[in-house]
Amino acid sequence: MIPIDIKGRHMAFNDKFRLSSHAVIIEQGETEPKVLLLKATYGHCDWGLPGGALEPGETIHEALLRECLEELGAAVTVNYLSGVCYHQAYDSQAFIFKCELAEAANITLSDEHSEYRFIPVSSLSAVQKQRIEDCLNYSGVVKSRKF
After folding, report:
1. pLDDT tens digits for 50-64?
2. Fewer CB within 10 A of the terminal residue: the chain, N end or C end?
């Protein structure tokens, strides 16, 4: 059987796909949960979840732990994988994990990010909000979405 993608093109053995792992880290706000976002110093300088691309030979968990340590200067505890999202704009699959920082963790950003904030979930973009809500409402079934 020849693997075919949804547009009818044949997928070659050596084709590469972008894969990334990202952490949803929540701070309980007074009225609603807030999620940790980092402001990038590259590209469009967007705000996003901690995490990033897998390196060759890494598992999704290894990439998540490495990226969080690099970007936050602190280790995270992984609770569960809540979703896998295909992002058409980047032709990538993003693995979304619920994680926790140690209570005494001191965030020290890498050069890739200029600042961090805990932002109310209600103020996020539609895509970010859906990913976070899927994570917070996790019922034991990993969600799969396209954006």
Report:
1. 999 999 999 999 999
2. N
